[in-house]
Design goal:
The protein has helices at residues 10-17, 21-29, 42-48, 58-68, 73-79, 83-124, 129-147, 153-169, 190-196, 234-238, 338-345, 381-394, 409-412, 418-427, 442-450, 467-479, and strands at 7-9, 39-41, 170-176, 180-185, 214-219, 222-224, 241-243, 247-249, 253-256, 268-279, 284-290, 304-309, 312-317, 327-333, 352-359, 371-377, 400-406, 431-437, 459-465, 487-491. It is α/β, with parallel strands linked by helices and 492 residues long. The longest helix is centred in the N-terminal third of the chain and has 42 residues, at 83-124.
Amino acid sequence: MPAMAHFLPLSRVARLVGESRSAIQRRIHDGELTTFDGMVEMGELLRVFPDVRWEDDGEFRRVEEIKAHAFSRRVYERALPAKEVLAERLFEMGREFAAAKTLLLHYDEVLRFLGDKLDDVAEAGAARPAVQQAIIDLKQWLRQALAARPSDTERAQALLAQENVMRILSARVTVNPAGHEFFVEGNDTLLEAALRAGIPLNYGCSNGNCGDCRARLVSGQIRKVHPHDFVLKESEKAEGDFLLCSYTAVSDVVVEAGIAGADDIPLQEIVTRVKAVEILNERIAALHLTAPRSQRLHFLAGQRVTLCVGDLSGEYYVASCPCEDRHIELHIRRDNSPLARHVFEDMAKEDSVRIEGPRGHFVMKLDSRRTVIFIAWEDGFAPIKSLVQHAMSLEIAESMHLYWVAGSAAATGGHYQDNLCRTWADALDEFIYQPLDAAGGAAAVAESILAHHPNLHHADIYAAGPPDFLHVLQTGALARGLSSMGWHGEAR
């Protein structure tokens, strides 16, 4: 069935069927879905997902949104790439269509030629009725086979149309050697799209001056959309070197680029604006800050920063994901510090707040694909929240478990974002959330958590809490098979 001979990358399959990439990989691992060189053949996709309603996909909803707003400037700029990039993608798709049509015309001529030759053989074999009848039967079968439509033709056509919309609106990027994937949408540069996806590529100024975001193009087509002052040698350009902050993807591309670790990110000092002070309860406030357009905070999930307001200062963990663009969230506990009192009582929208950082090594292990267990003690939830959201954005974990230990809301703040955690558990099949009471003490709580995980050979643990709790937890986890490389603790 020629109409079905089309292969799709896993990341596009995930978007088409509305599942995470890790869920698709589990289907492959379990033998439910067959791949060929890392790609999924369309007929196989239709077999495994017979009930998916392709028209409900987000890409089509986005097109409908554009139509509904009559291509207003705001929607146009957010949803569609620059006209030059769009024109190149459409031109490339036109070339593919022309090549496919040419090939079909060639096949038509071959079939015509085959029909004529069969007629010649039938005439030559007129004296042999059995041969003549066999040829007549063969020609009749060919006509019937060519006239017949595969049972999944309409669904295959819908899927092809859907994929073409995806390719026009976004380009897929693979980052080697890490193997991370993300999509470039709208007018984003490769760097902006990667950071939006939570992939911590190396970069410095992000405006073409420092050259820290230099990468190498392995395959595909890119286009320069922003000028840069950093000078690349002609020999480097010839080898495919370019700046991620100045180029966007025209087609699906593969690039070689460095992934930043905790020691690769320089200390920064930026002045942010207060977006909102969200009083979660009488003990905890979520401080929402917005970084300037020209200087977003470069950090990894799990790191902390120093918050400065005039002469007041304090150190807090970033609770937001690096994938949240310019948004920075900090959780402030009401205590006797002057800064905490200022946040709860005096801070207002649009106030200037200086941030210094990031610091810390409590960060995600990006090359792991094991089950991840997140454990937070009281407001140790802030770095854990950042890590959870980062893991979600990258889809790097087989499954995730979140345990949040807290005392009463009046005394400690309690599970002050419990609804958010329950939302994660409701939305993700492989996410389990369990709030726990701290009243039993560190040892009892640690034992109750480990009782759910008798074998930790294939797991990573990220835990933020008091030292005594972390000690008991680590000792018990190692006794249950956790690798020493799989333990990540942050004493609070």
